[in-house]
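Quick one: co-fold with pyridoxal-5'-phosphate.
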Amino acid sequence: MRERRIYLASPHMSKQGFEKQYIDEAFKTNWISPLGPNVDLFEKELADYVGVSHAAALSSGTAAIHLALKSLGIREGDLVFCSSLTFAGSVNPVLYEKAIPVFIDSDSSSWNMSREALRKAYQVYPAPRALIVVNLYGQSADYDLIREIAGEHGTPIIEDAAESLGATYKGVQTGALGDIGIFSFNGNKIITTSGGGMLVCNDEEIVKKARFWATQAREAVPWYQHNEVGYNYRMSNICAGIGRGQLKVLEERIAKKKFIYELYQESFADIPEIRMMPVCDYGSPNYWLSCIILDRSCRLKPFDLISALAKENIESRPVWKPMHLQPVYADKPFFSSVEGGISAAEDIFNRGVCLPSDTKMTTGDIELVAGIIRQLFGKQ
Ligand SMILES: Cc1ncc(COP(=O)(O)O)c(C=O)c1O
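Sure, here it is.
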């Protein structure tokens, strides 16, 4: 087995050492706390990059979704429409507030939320309190369609841009497309703070309130006064320093992710049973993960590829298992985009594979991964 592991997506610090400079400054000045200059500046720099006026740096993307839901006043028994094909962190906060997720299928042309499934959901549940839309694997959902439908019902949109920092939709940065946007800086994301998240919004009051809840809902009086329940959700000044450094190399990371996607695409061009995850012409993805989907007629299944790569110490994964198929959410409503047969999300899960998309991969590494898969299809 090869000694050096090739990862799906792992942290990649700048070669210039930007992150270290910000951390060193924090050490020198003893700003080792969940507040400080790096936190303030990371919020400002990220908001400027995304094109929104305000941002709150938090401990995770999940925390950001939780506070976004709270700021929309989501309470017990409220309905929240959610993308089904996603990571659990997108949806779990709905349960934290004892609200009810209603799962919406994907569209096979984008893997993102389906307009048809969304319309069906509104026919049954015309008044959800919020809609959480995921930009899957670094590609924006189709917000013109989604906003049109949500707008007819007055539903606020939480844009789950955890995976899509730097991607655009019709020239607008993801994160700025809903009423509230959220990002994740978990270790596997396009840029990382080791763990962290950000809530972004043009409404200053929402962001101020998010910071308030994130610091245990401590009232602005000299003693410890708490009129409501709070959380310990703030990002530390050290993590924010890493984030500031990482932000400087975001464009470089996107370019490398795109290179990885395109090299896989080229490598599989002569294998009709393999298709890349579709790229929609309404925007430009950040290509966070390069995913493929195997043809229905293909004799090989995702785990044949995953096992062949694992033998060479190479990490790959199935596509997210849809939330409506998870035991914890099995009793929640789901609306399929498909009439009869399995849903688009389940179909993508059954046939999809996330390939290693680590920005530290060399061209040789990408060719090695592609070569192992090509061999399985009898190609040199
Ligand atoms: C789509 C999506 N939403 C939410 C999250 C949660 O973010 P975090 O891990 O920072 O809590 C993640 C990933 O981690 C994600 O991929």
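If it helps, The mean pLDDT is 98.
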